[in-house]
Write a structure and sequence with these properties.
five-stranded mixed beta barrel, 1 helix, 6 strands, globular
């Protein structure tokens, strides 16, 4: 059960091309946003689509796959953990961000 404590699974589409960052120690980092859609009927019987955006981060060998195959609009399934962090802007404002650090990625859909 401990593996279920902080686990996120999503299927969605990339909002933009992944950003690949080469770090000084030779490691790579990939960042992208991903949209998930939920559909439901409102009280008038109209189908409503609600989109949620998620910040995705990947490390290691997963970055190589992301760099080679992912592009804006591509449908993927990801599994990872939810993380929160904060940073300070140049103006001194504190910002908070929630990200999903993935450890599994599956390419979906056609070419």
């Amino acid at each position: 059960m401990s593996s279920l404590r902080n686990r996120v699974q999503l299927i969605g589409n990339l909002g933009q091309a992944p950003e690949i960052i080469n770090l000084n120690d030779g490691k790579k980092l990939a960042k992208f946003s991903m949209a998930t859609n939920e559909k439901y009927k409102n009280t008038h019987g109209e189908i409503i689509t609600e989109t949620q955006w998620h910040n995705i981060v990947a490390w290691g060998k997963t970055v190589d796959v992301i760099e080679k195959y992912l592009e804006k609009g591509k449908e993927v399934a990801v599994e990872g953990k939810l993380t929160n962090r904060s940073y300070e802007t140049k103006e001194g404002d504190k910002r908070y961000i929630t990200e999903i650090v993935i450890n599994e990625l599956q390419l979906l859909g056609g070419k």
